[in-house]
Design a protein that fits this description.
The chain has 138 residues and is of the alpha+beta class. It has three helices and five strands; from the N terminus they run αβββαββα.
Length: 138
């Protein structure tokens, strides 16, 4: 079954589109965290970012700065967050890759974050980096 985003892309569900090309569609979120909250979605329907074709990923990379510039200019926001979740455990609600561009305003409107950082252990970090490098080509 097609995701709600695929249905929006096909025009089966109305949306307030702000950008569209052959590989990417961007539209206002219907439950925004702040005015100008936009979803940037690849036409290619994949659940996780790492499943996207290189072409779709590149198209997203081209569209994100263009849409972000327009959101800042249109809203007058002071800053913005770009959020992208992969999997239900990471709070992904719609299982179709998508990026949120969430304007942040001086009055606090926008995304709120709690960053629970920890200290990396040098030996563990070096081993983990080596394992990741070995798998980059997979």
């Amino acid at each position: 079954m097609a995701s709600i985003f695929t249905r929006i892309i096909r025009g089966e569900i109305p949306s307030d589109r702000v950008y569209e090309d052959s590989a990417v569609v961007a539209f206002l979120d219907v439950t925004p965290l702040s005015p100008g909250h936009v979803l940037v979605v690849p036409v290619e329907e994949k659940e996780y970012l790492h499943q996207l074709s290189e072409e779709s990923a590149a198209a997203l990379g081209r569209a994100l700065p263009r849409v972000a510039r327009a959101v800042l200019a249109a809203t007058g926001a002071a800053a913005y967050n770009i959020l992208q979740n992969n999997g239900a455990l990471a709070n992904q609600a719609v299982m179709h890759v998508h990026f949120h561009i969430i304007p942040k305003f001086e009055d606090g409107r926008g995304l709120g974050l709690v960053w629970k950082a920890s200290k990396a252990e040098p030996n563990e970090s070096a081993e983990l980096a080596a394992r990741i490098r070995e798998r980059i080509g997979e």
